[in-house]
Amino acid sequence: RRRGRGLSAARALAGGGALLGLGGLLLQYILLHESMTAEGAGPLDVLWRFSGYFTLLTNTLVTLLFARAALRDDARGLNAPHVELMAVTSILFVCAVYNVLLASRWNPQEWQLVADVIVHQAVPGLFALYWLARPHGRIGWADAGFAALWPFAYAAYGLKRGAFDGFYPYFFMNPTMTPWAQVAVNMAGLVAVFGVGALAMVALDRWLARRVKGA
Fold first, then answer.
1. Are 139 and 75 in contact (CB under 8 A)?
2. What is d(CA 102, CA 171) in angstroms, rounded to the nearest whole number?
3. Three-class SS string for 171-214?
4. Positive/negative CA dihedral, 173, 179, 184, 187
5. Closest by Cα among 133, 158, 151, 157 to 197
6. How far apart are CA 158 and CA 60, in angstroms?
7. DSSP state letters, 133-175
8. pLDDT tens digits along 84-138
9. Pairwise CA distance, residues 71 & 2, whole Å
C-alpha cells in the first residue's frame, strides 16, 4: 500500500512536471526566437542555438521523462532507474552550476526571468521530488558512471559545436576567452563533480531503500 501511494505521488508530480517543463522550454524558445530573429537569424538558426545549451538539453530530457512517467507507470526506457539517476543528477547539476557560476553574470527581467526560474530552479526542484517519490534500491554504484555519460557527451558536443560556429554558451568552456589547457581542466573538474554527485545520489537511493524495508 505504501509503495502504491508513492507511485501515485510520483505520477502526479510527473504530470505537473511535464507541463511545467514544456512551458519553460517553449517560453525560452520564444524569447530566443524574438531576440535572434530581430538580428536577422532564421528559425533553423534559433533551433541550432537552442540546442547548444546543456541547461535546455537537460530540461528537454527531464520533460520527456516526466511525460513518459505520467503516461506509463513503469520502470522501463526513459524511466529505467539508471536513466532516472542520470536525469536527477543532471538537472540538479544544472541548478547548482547556474547558481554558483552563472547567475551573477546576468540579470534577467520580465518573461526571461520567468523562463530562467523554471529551467534552473522549478524543474530541478520538482524532478528531485519526483525522484524521491519513486521506488528505490534498484541502482548500484556502477550506475553513477552511466549517469556521468550525459555531461561527458555534452562536453565533447559543446566543444565541437563551438569549433564549428564559434559560439560557446558557457564561459568556462570557451577557448576564445580561456586557454585550452584551462578549458580542459574546467571541463574535467565539472565532470568529476558530477560524478561525485551521482555517487551521492546512489548512496541516498540505497539509504531510502533500507529505510522503506525497515518501516
1. no
2. 9
3. HHHCCCCCCHHHHHHHHHHHHHHHHHHHHHHHHHHHHHHHHHHH
4. negative
5. 151
6. 16
7. HS--S---TTHHHHHTHHHHHHHHHHHHHHHHHS--SSGGG-T
8. 999 999 999 999 999 998 888 888 889 999 999 999 999 999 999 999 999 999 9
9. 21
Max Cα-Cα span within the chain? 62
SS3 content of the chain, % helix, strand, coil (to 5): 80, 0, 20
- Reading the block at residue 175, the C-alpha cell is 577557448
Q: Reply yes or no on whether the pLDDT at 75 is more than 50.
A: yes
CA–CA distance, 137 with 6 (Å, rounded to integer): 14
Nearest-10 crossing angle of helices 54-71, 81-97: 140
Q: How far apart are CA 37 and CA 51, in angstroms?
A: 16
* Cα–Cα distance for residue pair 154/52, rounded to 1 Å: 9
